[in-house]
Amino acid sequence: MEEVFPFYTPFNSNLAGAGVSTGIQNFPGVRLRGLPFDCNEVDICKFFAGLEILDCLLVNKNGRFTGEAFVVFTGSMPAEFALHRNRQNMGRRYVEVFRCKKQEYYCAIANEVNQGGCFEPEYRRSPPPPRPKKPAEDKGSMEYTEVLKLRGLPYSATTEDIIKFFLEYELTEENVHIAYRSDGKATGEAFVEFPTAEVAKTAMCKDKMTIGTRYVELFPSTPEEASRAKSRGRQ
């Protein structure tokens, strides 16, 4: 049973832009527009205080934050409550909160992973120019150790989720190291240790597969990089 948050009473004037209805949307996600350009995932979590977030994706274009984001909640009820926060302030800026379709969210993820997927800001009417594709053998030609780096993990991902992701490799908790910031928040990255560099290279077949709703990128890494990440999380 989903939790209801009676402490929040929305203003009716905020609801028209958000598209709130008496029905509950199927996809428990929203799209934010007008965010401060220096905001991060923690700021968005504070903006939606009291609502449990499953994933938060900041939209970048040409390496710069666009002021837009997608937020996916743990269920339809908190997503509906999130719509009531349309036009509330974050810092000095008011933030627009809209419903979003599942396809928009997935396209935004693909765009982030592939640097040029199907999601484009609404003001852009013409299709983007074709981007040169990176050679498929880029990662294959890199030097491998027994460590792989995972990027793009859901912030709620657990060690058990990663072990299941690499199920056929029979990993243990000691092989998985999720990276955290100094404030204890997950970074969306992790490091996984395999028996040998050759085994790690075969595990690259999991590159851009999903954990939950997120595409996960894999990269060759080193024990030293994994160790530095663990040290940062302890600070």
UniProtKB/TrEMBL annotation:
Ranges where the record places region Disordered: 120-140
UniProt domain RRM: residue ranges: 146-223
Domain of life: Eukaryota
Hydrolase listed as a keyword: no
Xref: InterPro entries: ESRP, Nucleotide-bd_a/b_plait_sf, RBD_domain_sf, RRM_dom
A UniProt-annotated Pfam family: RRM_1
PANTHER family: HETEROGENEOUS NUCLEAR RIBONUCLEOPROTEIN-RELATED
Tagged with keyword RNA-binding: yes
GO molecular function: RNA binding
Name of this protein: RRM domain-containing protein
Keywords (A to Z) from UniProt: Repeat, RNA-binding
